[in-house]
Design a protein that fits this description.
Length: about 130
């Protein structure tokens, strides 16, 4: 199974994917609370932590790492998480973290403002 992209987790936790994304984020709690065969559930702290700071790549990576460990320990969790990820990635406009950016600037001697980015959520303002 492919790992869950931290950017996808951040988008869902931050509500940028709309109502459908909020439902998928809520369903992630059920996945995290599943008891692995080895005992105690793991990942609830990371899930809550990302929910409190959805713009934190560090917290998103921690949750993604815990989920990756869970799928190694529990094949049923792996299947459920794979289904969850496909639903999450199917949301229109949800960044998945997969893909490259290639920007090329050419032309005359004057170049206006330039931004190199992949996923931008919200307005951009140039000037003073």
């Amino acid at each position: 199974m492919d790992p869950i992209a931290p950017e996808l987790l951040m988008a869902l936790a931050g509500g940028t994917a709309g109502a459908a994304g909020q439902q998928i984020w809520a369903s992630s709690r059920d996945l995290v609370r599943r008891r692995p065969p080895a005992g105690e559930p793991r990942g609830e702290g990371e899930l809550v932590s990302l929910g409190e700071a959805s713009d934190s790549p560090t917290r998103a990576r921690q949750l993604a790492d815990v989920l990756a460990l869970r799928v190694q320990q529990d094949p049923a969790c792996a299947q459920a998480l794979d289904t969850w990820r496909r639903e999450a990635e199917a949301l229109d406009g949800t960044p998945t973290g997969v893909g490259d950016i290639h920007n090329e600037i050419s032309g005359g001697t004057f170049q206006g403002p330039v931004i190199q980015a992949r996923d931008i959520n919200g307005p951009l303002h140039f000037g003073s």
